[in-house]
Amino acid sequence: MKGKMKVAVMTATGKMDYTERDIPVPKDDEVLVKLEYVGICGSDLHYYESGAIGDFIVKPPFVLGHEPGGTVVEAGKNVKHLKVGDRVALEPGRTCGHCEFCKTGRYNLCPDVVFFATPPVDGVFQEYVAHEAGLCFKLPDNVSTLEGALIEPLAVGFHAANQGGAHAGQTAVVTGSGCIGLVSMMALKAMGVSKVYVADIMQKRLDKAMELGADGVINSSETDAVQRVRELTGGAGCDLVIETAGTEITTRQAIAMTKKGAAIVLVGYSKTGELTLPVSMALDKELTIKTIFRYRHIYPMAIDAVASGRVNLKGLATHIFDFDDMQSAMDQSVSDKANVVKAVVKIAKD
What we know:
alpha/beta, Quinone Oxidoreductase, Chain A, domain 1, Rossmann fold, six-stranded parallel sheet, globular
């Protein structure tokens, strides 16, 4: 397909604009996807606000966005499992396939991954993208491309639940009710965890957690979260905590609210990168503390959970912005975090 496409570019910190680029040509093992929806991730907002995340520094003009869903409009000659017209969710990271981590199935740890919207690799706030066909997952008829765009954050939630050994009979707590906290809660419920509570200081986000299926919420600005968890568990403490807020206080609370032998999964990044924690308490309880980095082998599971109705991804999207309104989409997502739990950009026009 020849022609030009519209691309939204970050031209400076806090500034969005548009340019035109050639529509990419898919290689033999790639498909060309007409993008319909792309989610705005917390990392996009961080790059937009500060221009960097750790050692990853944006050099404008830069294209943000790594949560895409769309429709295949062209397929390379070696592609067998997808055809023109298939709707797909795109896993945004291409890995080398040859390193220790790829060979042992832990491809999310590949040091040579090429990941959308991770500098210097451009993202996909644009009309078309050519992507490796093996990383494009066909959506069932009852799963929309809007939901397809949200499979990416949902994959994070499922990976966190997997790392924590989530299963039926457990009581779990998710600290933080932003997008990743909410998808973690929904993943835990989809995996059969008996009781899932969500703790945060923003009541509107907690209300969204209840709407999406949490068994209860704890407003930590009004209630002692650790004491409340003990009350809810008859004094025992919870079996699992998924920590998505990335703060020292919530991580300390996670250690305090768990029972002996429990598991904690650290998902959220702290602003400083360092935390001071009550390690002696963790040792006394013989806690298992794990971390996650993105996800691996999750997309089929996540898509099935949405298709079967076990996860309500449509309810996660609180705001949908037109592609022509990228400046407002980014600015509102930054300035109104209590209300904009998850924003999605509609790329394709009706």
